[in-house]
Design brief:
Layout: H1 12-63, H2 73-78, E1 97-103, E2 108-114, E3 124-129, E4 134-136
Antiparallel strand pairs: 1-2, 2-3, 3-4
């Protein structure tokens, strides 16, 4: 006589329940991770602005004025490689456009601007001044 073995495996209902549970968990988790991606993109802007600030301070110590005094912000944004003059490399895939809006003997303001960073159409704008104060001037702030 043959021994009957119980059938092993999962039923279709059990598999469907597992898929539904995973779908619910994913629907709850994804919205929590979206702000983190924006925060990481903003970290790029903050790091490059701080590097620009440090190099501008060193340039001012040596030359008694900030670099970029004669350049327009549009020319700097158009050619991000200009910052290599002061030792700052803006990577090719950078999410932000960097510029110097004010550069004279005593005042300095550098900006990082990104459009379409998230679902919000408002641009994300970060600034750093001659004192090293970093601030977000756009409505869409994630600190």
């Amino acid at each position: 006589m043959k021994k009957l073995r119980p059938k092993s495996g999962f039923t279709l209902i059990e598999l469907m329940i597992v898929v539904v549970i995973i779908g619910i968990l994913a629907a709850m988790a994804v919205p929590r991770f979206m702000p983190m991606t924006i925060k990481s993109k903003q970290a790029e802007a903050k790091a490059i602005l701080k590097q620009m600030f440090t190099m501008e301070r060193a340039y001012r110590q040596a030359n008694d004025s900030y670099w970029g005094q004669g350049l327009t912000a549009d020319s700097l944004v158009a050619n991000q490689n200009n910052f290599a003059t002061i030792g700052v490399e803006v990577p090719d895939g950078a999410k932000y456009q960097f510029g110097i809006t004010v550069a004279n003997g005593t005042n300095l303001t550098m900006t990082a601007t990104a459009t379409a960073l998230d679902d919000d159409p408002a641009p994300d704008i970060w600034q750093i001044d001659q004192d090293g104060v970093l601030s977000c001037t756009s409505d869409d702030v994630t600190l």
